[in-house]
């Protein structure tokens, strides 16, 4: 059924394929969070007033600040890729570093937020929280799990970007071969976009 | 212009790479070696799962205690379920035969991401080890059933967390395989191989891979949430903390129903390969079979709540899920119709692979029809959670997918290893399997209909006769399994060596390369000009043009 002939169809490097694989992976990440967003919608529908009250405990200021930080870090990441494509290696490295600084800043804010909640006794299993209504317990359960898993993704993103910076510095990621940095960028935008949904759903419903 | 020229005169089994010994296998990024790694691990876990199954049947031989106590019995059916589903049936075809044959059948040298492929296997192994650890750790093996239903799964003191993490890790491995396969099928098809020139096994793997990608993350997060709930007392599903156990069931089945299509679709693909080859006839309705795989993947994602007809959903929801359940049967029926039509007036050659394929059609049809019986709302109330459902899904999963895996083994074994197995012994094993299977599972339909609940340790004396028949069936089935694997394994060691490229007269690409295949699959990448299954050379009934 088939004739054979010499061909160079199968080049070893396939940037288009790598991008496709990354996008498929991002779908799975979206669905992972999708499960939690689904749980959130069901419970918020069941306990609207209690979600509203519980959300008052969160600091809108902190949330807004973190949103700004993360959005800006997405910009610096995109610029880092553009810089590398234009053969500006040092600029790209600086921008990748800036992204990392923003990411760290985000986590530090998160740390202060969580520890403030902890001091108010608003953590799973604490008496103060357990005395509250079921809707509020659920709100904080979801808050910790969803922002916690998002925080984990920030950390993973930081590790990936650090690895990419190393690759850039060693000239393994270059203007001609930057698909890995692009994939890291896509991942970072995903982290960003999930936060864009988390922010209004937890901070802006009070 | 074969730029990375590998030595293509040596088979993948003997190729010397960077590593030697065991490392040459467990660190290999060759899709064929990874496929075999999966096969060895999968068969190991299969034997463990079978052992639990046989012990469970033995316990049910008499009412009350036969060999073990109720707590151990609960662990038996839980571990049997977890192992068979996550470690045998899900990876069975895609990870073993998909890995081995997907690149070859589309004329590629490897999958798109070979290193990721190896990582998938390592994750699979890690998940399997975690499952074993959960059995051995203090606290006792998990006893929740493979479904981990809330609230029991947050209350029991057994090792639920390691079991959940095992399932999560195995899910991750499955996702990575899915990503790899979708990308490979999109990017690496040989020149000339358009979508409708792909073999049907590839179509089924493609649909399966999408389900793996889209459905698995949901169960991943659901299981993680149960872990958080157990570890930190986070209120998500536990009703004591305001949660809703029914929401857990929804999230669980949003994955786990599509997952049954992860299990059955590749088996349907294998059958679509075997039927035309052994009836020497062009497959009937190629496009319908190809697209019905996609239809099953789509519709199968919308029927999950038919597992939950007794939890108290709204009438509208019940009606819709029941309707969709009936609709999803249509694409499966299309396939069965097309297989049978392919056989019609073919020149049929009843070699072992075809026997298994025919058994698949027979058993899968029984499994499918009894599924429809349960999809009807009123009947479902009567047989919900009885052994009727146990019989149904074993007919589909074991009679279907299990026999599909055996069919694939007998079909591709000579190609994979360059050794012939004994046909007579294979056929004898087949009859043991077929008779044993029906003796084991058919009585479950009857006693389920009469009211025997599933997962029960004890039962009323009037059910004993069915339990005895069923347990005897399990012994026949195990004999068949033993005979079959003995035959296949001894073929590896003593079987007649063969380098015959195309022993069955197949028309797909794996038959156009040497036996066993070389490291990069083809000496030169083939150019595809024809649709698969066009039996020009066999001059038997080739009128059907598949375009």
Question: What would your notes on this structure say?
Answer:
Chain A has 206 residues and is mostly helical. Chain A has one domain (33-203): Four Helix Bundle (Hemerythrin (Met), subunit A) (Up-down Bundle). Helices cover 79% and strands 1% of the residues of chain A. Chain A has seven helices and one strand, in the order βααααααα. By secondary structure, chain B is mainly alpha-helical. Chain B has one domain: Up-down Bundle (Cytochrome C Oxidase, Chain A), CATH 1.20.210. Helix content of chain B is 65%, strand content 1%. Chain B has 15 helices and one strand; from the N terminus they run αααααααααααααααβ. In chain B, α2 runs antiparallel to α15 (464-494), α6 (160-187) packs antiparallel against α7 (200-232) and α8 (245-279) runs antiparallel to α11.
Q: What is the count of distinct domains of chain A?
A: 1
N-to-C series of helices and strands of chain A: EHHHHHHH
User: If you consult CATH, what is the topology of chain A?
Assistant: Four Helix Bundle (Hemerythrin (Met), subunit A)
Q: Alpha-carbon distance between the termini of chain A?
A: 67 Å
How many DSSP E strands of chain B?
Answer: 1
Helix and strand content put the structural class of chain A at mainly alpha
Percent of sequence in beta strands of chain A: under 5%
Q: Rg of chain A from C-alpha positions? A: 21 Å
Between the first and last Cα atoms of chain B, what is the distance in angstroms?
33 Å
Largest interface chains and counts: A-B, 46 and 60 residues
Query: What's the number of structural domains of chain B?
Result: 1
Report the sheet-strand fraction of chain B.
Answer: under 5%
Helix share, percent of chain A: over 70%
Count of individual helical segments of chain B: 15
